[in-house]
Amino acid sequence: MGENGLKILKGTLEILILKTLHREPNHGYGIARWLRETSSDEFQVEEGALYPALRKLEKRGLINSAWEITNTGREAKIYRLTVEGEEALDAASANWDRYVSAMASVMGPGSNQ
Amino acid sequence: MNDSRKEQERVSPKARVAEDVDREISAHLDMCVEELVRDGWEPENARKEAMRRFGNERKVRRHCRAIENEHLRKVKTKRIVEGTLQDLRYGARAFLKSKGFSLVAIATLAVGIAANATVFSILNGVLLKPLPYDKPEELVWVTEKSQTGTPMSAAWANFRDWRAESRSFRGLTAYTNYPTTVLGGTEPVYARVANVSRDFWTVFPVPPSSGRLTLPEDHVEGVEPVAVVSEMFAQRYLGGRDALGRGIEISGTLVEVVGIVPPAMNFPMGAELWVPAELTSKSVSRSSHNWRVVGRLEAGLTPSSAALELDPMTVRLVASSTREEEQRYLATGTIITPLQDVIVGDTKRPLFLLMGAAAFVLLVACTNLASTLLARGTARTRELAVRSAVGASRGRIIRQLLSESAFLAALGGMAGIGLTLVALIGLRSVAGASIPRMESVALDGTVLLFTSFVTLFTALAFGLLPALRTGEHDQARVLRTDGRGNEGYKGRIWGSLVMVEVALALVLLTGSGLLVRSFNAVLAVDGGFDEGDVIVSGIALSGIKYPSLEDHRMFWDGMLARAEAIPGASHAGLISSAPASGSLPNGLVHLDGGTSRTGDAGYIVASAGAFSALDIPLLRGRLFNASDGPDSRHVVVVNQSFADKYWPGENPIGKQVSGGGMDGYWTADTPVFGTVVGVVGDVRYRSLIRAARPTVYWNYRQRPYRIRRGAYMVVEADAIGVGGLAESFRVTLHEADPDVAPRIQLLKDSIAESLAERRFTLMIMSGFALTGLFLAALGIFGVVSYAVAQRTREIGIRMALGASGGAVRGMVIRGAMAPVVLGLLVGVAGAWSFNRVIAGLLYEVRPTDPLTFVTVSGVLFSTGLAASWLPTMRGTRVDPMNSLRED
Predict the structure, then answer these.
(1) Could you tell me which residues come within 8 angstroms of residue B260 by beta carbon, excluding any fewer than 6 positions away?
(2) How far apart are CA B588 and CA B609, in angstroms?
(3) For an interface test with B, which of A36, A55, A79 has the most B Cβ atoms less than 10 Å from its Cβ?
(4) Which residues of A touch B60 (CB under 8 A)?
(5) B68/A77 Cβ within 8 A
(6) What is the pTM assigned to this prediction?
(7) Roughly what angle, to the nearest 10 degrees, separates helices A50-59 and A28-38?
(8) Which tens digit of pLDDT belongs to each residue from B739-761?
(9) Residues B24, A77: C-beta atoms closer than 8 Å
(10) Which chain A residues contact residue B34 at CB under 8 A?
């Protein structure tokens, strides 16, 4: 995560969180770490920004949470995807694919010339 | 678990949210530090790095809390809405379950709420709504202060100087108004004309609906006279828009109509034409108080600050007046009052009295419902106990009961508004012109708002006590005992409710009883004349057709002869003031043929026939007769009070008295006295309840000066009755002069009109009192019925053990009447202390009038007795065995 890291596009943080939780239930720090590692430090996200997003998702019923003891023996609030969350993620992924291919065909080879 | 849950519940949800957020953030930071240290960071730097990666911790915390709190709010709102909907469903279900009770309850409430909404509509329209003129708070009434400290009309000379010297006013205007004949329209009209001075339209800046208002150049002596007329007048008599430019004749002056003003312009009250007052020269006297003055204050000034300027100014101005005969009529200062207070005047007190009475009616209604609901609540104790046993909290049950009463109150409020509409229509026709500003009384937003508050209050007032009482029950005990129990406590509560109801009803009945007695006293007043079978008509002659005093005298000579000759008329007369409903001008008189002795007297111009038509008794001497011609010695008739005051113990016949400043026959060089030829009984001219003034009657054939602007004709019917008299009189007048518009009325009706405001107050108050009585009777009936029903078993046992029906009935009725009697005592004490409020409205009845108190208590006592007798009779007619078997 350097000076020239990527800014996360508006609205995409939520999809990233859902995707992360789809893999396995996790706490906020775990989500942040996973995002950092899988994007090879590209995403320039302040870890704190995750929490409001998490709480919003929870209010919308896409995830739920509970305080649990982690493998390292520490108390943490663990978030899980709900059924609605799974559906929302599916819909968002499909949408994302279309978006990316549409963007790609516009921005694709030739657009730089 | 249970403990921690309780622990959690003690902390507020908001605090819990804050803690959760904090915990989560610190867990995050700890995990991060731990990992960094594992990766080889110094602990201290690791902490800094973790915080850097996290970003703005405070912002995140705040943001998270906001999200959670917003969510809490939403949940709470949703719960309230759902709860309320559920309550309403309960309310509606309860309503449907006992339709009879609910309808009675709604009707009771509707009456109570309507009483308040009606009176408040009137109060709002008459007292609270601002006058319909621009910045009405700046409008003030300016009067001179008489030597007894009372307000009196202003002298033109004083007004002129105030206007020139004062800096307190943006505009200051003087006016007079009088009814007169207006000619030149589709027919002669007897209409009210206002003579207004230059600033009138600055004080009342009303945009004309067509044409223009009068301009300063119209308000100059000697210019072509112009007039502004009301829309209604233009419509009815001048062909609407064609009115502009039209010439009409107003009391002898040809006037061009230059403008029409909308109906909102109703000042002076009832005026239909406005004419510049400056067209003729004005008296320089500082003691002829003929002008009313209204001013518009400079922005930011108050009536009292203006008075600070004008009061000493007036004292200084009148000091220049040295004429001896003026001295006792000169002002001692200036009084300035907000205009609205003056217009509303005497209506204020009765309206506040009625508002209080309406509140009492509502309280009776509430008390009534509270006791009924309490009875129902007891019947439902079991249902509520079950509900509570299955987990409804006490608060929840109280809320349910309150929402049931709110449901009833809402329906009652709506029905009440319907009733109010009806009542207002009825009252508007009763009030007529007697209540100022009645036209602005309406069921508007303010009234609806007020009604909603009243309804809300009502729901709480009658729902709260039963709800609290019911919520109090120990569920287990109730379920065990089948809902019975604690009779003594309930009995006490009902007893106090009945007591309160009776006390409130007594106060209402006493108030209305006093007003009835007072009204009867007014009706019984001997005004000194007999209004039976007499018609009265205001008549004003055209000044163009009758330019000289001689012309007037000749018209009246002829007209009086014609009127006397009407078949069915026994006497006809002319008089410058109408009895009991008119005004009586008064002024200085000189006594005994010289200037050394002076007095004050009412001034009336009359014909001999007026005394006969009105049956005013001749006590001494004679009336005017044919020998008293214009050229013979001037003669007068005085009333008893005048004779007693100025010549006590002497024979007044032959004494001398002058007309003073009241007519054109008094100048310092050639004083013309009148010789007293007769003494007549006192007559109350100003109103039935104001004592007669010492009065001098002048003969119209000798001094017609004061009737140039108009006078009244009184015609008494003969034995056949007053039936067709008005019509024959109209015809006769038309024959005498087709250009005179009469306004014919039975004298009886014109007097009734003068009492309309009193009658208005009395009617509403009596309506309230009867409602209060009826509601109280209903309440007693209900409570006793219920108590008897509850005691059926006890009554059965007593009768089975040999008690006679009479003894048992006596016991029940004694029990029922105890709170009634207590209520009477409390009510008497209450009514006694409300005396001061009503005292000012009474005439010749003391607010502690024993007859009223005794009668009213008797009525209430017998009503209470009847209301408890009926259910008792029903309840004790049971077969003892049946009542025992019932359980």
Answers:
(1) B208, B209, B210, B211, B228, B229, B230, B231, B234, B241, B243, B244
(2) 26
(3) A55
(4) 48-49, 51-52
(5) no
(6) 0.69
(7) 120
(8) 888 888 888 888 887 787 788 88
(9) yes
(10) 72
CA distance B330 to B681: 31
Q: Model confidence over B112-137: pLDDT tens digits?
A: 888 888 888 888 887 777 777 888 88
Q: What mean pLDDT do residues B268-289 have?
A: 85
- Please judge whether B30 and A74 are an interchain contact, meaning their C-beta atoms are less than 8 angstroms apart: yes
List residues of chain A with CB under 8 Å from any CB of chain B: 27-29, 32-33, 46-49, 51-52, 55-56, 59, 67, 72, 74-77
Structure tokens, B504: 């409130």
Show the beta-strand stretches assigned E in B415-568. 534-539
CA B154 to chain centre: 28
Give the per-residue pLDDT at B432: 65
Query: In terms of Cα–Cα distance, which of A57, A28, A51, A66 is closest to B63?
Result: A51
From residue B413, give the alpha-carbon distance in Å to each of B108, B410, B450, B617: 10, 5, 11, 57
Alpha-carbon gap: A3 to the closest alpha carbon of chain B (Å): 13
Give B211's strand partners.
B259
Are B30 and A56 in contact (CB < 8 Å)?
A: no
Residues forming a β-bridge with B599: B589
Which string of DSSP letters, residue by residue, matches B184-248? SSSS-EEEEEEEE-TTHHHHS-PPPSEE----GGGSSTTSPPEEEEEHHHHHHHS-GGGGTT-EE
By residue count, chain A amounts to 113
Determine, for residues A27 and B28 on separate chains, whether the beta-carbon distance falls below 8 Å: yes
CB-based contact A47 B53, cutoff 8 Å:
yes
> What does the pLDDT look like over B425-455, one tens digit per residue?
888 877 766 677 777 788 888 888 888 888 8
Which residues have C-beta within 8 Å of that of residue B28, sequence separation ≥ 6?
A: A27, A28, A29, A32, A47, A51, B54
Q: Which of B420-429, B480-489, B620-629 has the highest mean pLDDT?
A: B620-629
